[in-house]
Amino acid sequence: LAKTTQPISMDSYEGQEVNITCSHNNIATNDYITWYQQFPSQGPRFIIQGYKTKVTNEVASLFIPADRKSSTLSLPRVSLSDTAVYYCLVGDGRRDDKIIFGKGTRLHILP
Amino acid sequence: DAGVIQSPRHEVTEMGQEVTLRCKPISGHDYLFWYRQTMMRGLELLIYFNNNVPIDDSGMPEDRFSAKMPNASFSTLKIQPSEPRDSAVYFCASTRRGLSSYNEQFFGPGTRLTVL
Questions:
Q1: Which helix (H) or strand (E) holds A21?
Q2: C-alpha–C-alpha distance, residues A109 and B18, integer Å
Q3: For residue A97, what pLDDT is reported?
Q4: Which A positions 51-80 lie with beta carbon below 8 A of chain B?
Q5: Contacts of A100 in chain B (CB under 8 A)
Q6: What local confidence, expressed as pLDDT, does residue B100 receive?
Q7: Three-state DSSP class for A1?
Q8: ∠ CA(A29), CA(A38), CA(B22), 5° rounding?
Q9: What mean pLDDT do residues A87-92 have?
Q10: Beta strand pairing status for A105-110 and A9-13?
């Protein structure tokens, strides 16, 4: 499984766009990039997944450059309720039976 | 679907006592995972099952921990005897492996265990 590196913590203010970057230099050809979000006192939940270029859903956007060695999760106009831990994971759902969560990025939104 | 169900939500016990955590995965999911989360170590995978069979238990910290999955709709994680360092939030998650690389795990609400 490819190792990922992401910042331990980030602070931002309400209404701002937040970008969290994850490095995955050893990503394999068939690996997808997945982000999970964990609110306090809850289990992680899937928010977005992508393979290359850009993916957007109602929650976030995921930007993946051509070399795929990094990815950026973008949260538009954050609110206090976006305070959570965000995990970046890399793997192939067809091959990898388990997903390894790291420490994630603790995002703190300030009023 | 009700999602992944875990019980109890909170458990407080004394050192040396046996603790049993329970999980009901989402119907139709063929993989079940047990995780432990602490501030120091983050989210750790303890063990996972495929079609009720344990596949990888390399994350189980020691022999005091055991997990079973007697059928597709029920799993238990048992700690005996419990120790204060076992205090953590224990999550159960399930997923259905498909033919694509898309693989989303669905997590339960967790059981907060406190061992005094």
A1: strand A18-23
A2: 40
A3: 62
A4: 51
A5: 45
A6: 56
A7: coil
A8: 100
A9: 88
A10: parallel
Dump pLDDT digits (tens) for A12-64. 999 999 999 999 999 988 888 999 999 988 999 999 999 998 999 999 999 99
The residue among B62, B77, B88 whose CA lies nearest residue B32 is B77
What pLDDT is attached to residue B19?
98
State the smallest CA–CA distance between residue B18 and chain A in angstroms: 24
Residue of A41, A47, A99, A106 for testing the chain B interface, max B β-carbons within 10 Å = A99
Sheet holding A70-75, edge to edge: A18-23, A70-75, A61-64, A53-56
Residue ranges in chain B whose pLDDT is less than 70: 1, 98-103
Q: Where do we find the tokens 């859903």? A: A57
Residues in B whose CB is inside 8 Å of some CB of A read 4, 31, 33, 35, 42-43, 45, 48, 50, 55-56, 91, 93, 97-110
Spell out which residues of chain A touch residue B107, defining contact as CB-CB under 8 Å.
Answer: 42-45
pLDDT digits (tens, 9 = 90+) for B36-64: 999 888 899 999 999 999 998 999 988 99
Q: A7: distance to nearest CA of chain B, Å?
A: 14
